[in-house]
Give the backbone structure.
Amino acid sequence: MQNNFKMLARRLFRRQGRALSKICEDCLVMCGFISLWQIIYPSTVFAYIDPNTGGYVFQILFPIISAITAVLLFFKNQAVSVIKRVIALVKKMLGRP
């Protein structure tokens, strides 16, 4: 996991000086670990979810999902090429052919 953050930092800061790149790389790795820690071990957990929350969540998510679907259908060819590039980049970062 740490190597993926380092590779991302190297790609983002490859044109800057070596010292700045190393500082930014370390900072990005630390931010990644802190974010992962907060997701895995949250400090506050609220156990009760109101039954009406489902309707509210549906009202929020339905237009968002509909808009994303419409954009993907409208720009299908461009979206497919972007997704292929992202998958290729992830495979390259993981070291898979």
The CA atoms of residues 81 and 87 lie 10 Å apart. The chain is about 75% helix and 0% strand. Residues 18-40 form the longest helix (23 residues). The two ends are 18 Å apart (CA to CA).
